[in-house]
């Protein structure tokens, strides 16, 4: 059964304290792995797409990496405005997508 | 571009009533998705369309749920009759050739 698991469920960091979020998956035929950011009361906002193991993408303080079994979202020197829920999703056959339940990140000033 | 537009933003209804949620995708996008988000189950894909054609509705929970896409700029998700367990936030998303999805602001549905 296709499954996506994110950890930790919640993470509290001091401003400037770097860390990583994990997204592990067991799917047949990965077509792509996506990271989204969701703020309270809003829809998810697209961050990155990764297609193959070894691929990396960066945007400001965020860097996403992909292996054959998991993806990491690294946050370097986070700021309070990085506080949000981060979701990962995998695309399998066609346009079938499975989302993880997310990591709620709080960055304390 | 205004992004994905959903209406209404909030809907409160009583059990047994019909509910219709509406979505306007981003112009030029050929795929449209309906999701439901709850605290317990997270974000679940209900159905998706490619070029206005329903491709996979295996996520639709029951026959009470139906979705249509009569043209490239409009889709509806209907629940008839509604039940309290349908209370959730419903998102519409659209995507183009690169598969990244752009989400609307969601409709928060409360069924009393």
In short:
The complex is a heterodimer of chains A (about 110) and B (about 110). Chain A is about 0% helix and about 60% strand. Chain A has strands spanning about 5, 10-15, 20-25, 30-40, 45-50, 55-60, 60-65, 70-75, 85-90, 95-100, 105-109.
Structural overview:
The complex is a heterodimer of chains A (109) and B (112). With 109 residues, chain A is mainly β. Chain A has no helices and 11 strands. In chain A, the strands form 2 sheets. In chain A, strands 2, 4, 5, 9, 10 and 11 form a 6-stranded mixed β-sheet that branches. Chain A has a 5-stranded antiparallel β-sheet with strand order 1-3-8-7-6, with no helix packed on it. The termini of chain A are far apart. Chain B is mainly beta. Chain B has no helices and 11 strands. In chain B, the strands form 2 sheets. In chain B, strands 2, 4, 5, 6, 9, 10 and 11 form a 7-stranded mixed β-sheet that branches. In chain B, strand 9 and strand 10 form a beta hairpin. Chain B is globular. The mean pLDDT of chain B is 94. At the A-B interface, strand 4, strand 5, strand 9 and strand 10 of A face strand 4, strand 5, strand 9 and strand 10 of B.
């Amino acid at each position: 059964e296709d499954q996506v698991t994110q950890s930790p469920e919640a993470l509290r960091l001091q401003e400037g304290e770097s860390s990583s979020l994990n997204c592990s998956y067991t799917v047949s035929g990965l077509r792509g792995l996506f990271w989204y950011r969701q703020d309270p009361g809003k829809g998810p906002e697209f961050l990155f797409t990764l297609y193959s193991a070894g691929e990396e993408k960066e945007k400001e303080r965020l860097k996403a990496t992909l292996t054959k079994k998991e993806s990491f979202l690294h946050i370097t020197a986070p700021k309070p405005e990085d506080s949000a829920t981060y979701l990962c999703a995998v695309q399998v056959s066609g346009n079938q997508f499975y989302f993880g339940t997310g990591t709620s990140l709080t960055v304390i000033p | 571009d205004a992004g994905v537009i959903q209406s209404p933003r909030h809907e409160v209804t009583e059990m047994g009533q019909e509910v219709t949620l509406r979505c306007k995708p981003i112009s030029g996008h050929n795929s449209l998705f309906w999701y439901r988000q709850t605290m317990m189950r997270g974000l679940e894909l209900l159905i998706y369309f490619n070029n206005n054609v329903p491709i996979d509705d295996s996520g639709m929970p029951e026959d009470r749920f139906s979705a249509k896409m009569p043209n490239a700029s409009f889709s509806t998700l209907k629940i008839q009759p509604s039940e309290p367990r349908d209370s959730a936030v419903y998102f519409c998303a659209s995507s183009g050739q690169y598969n990244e999805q752009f989400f609307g602001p969601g409709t928060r549905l409360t069924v009393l």
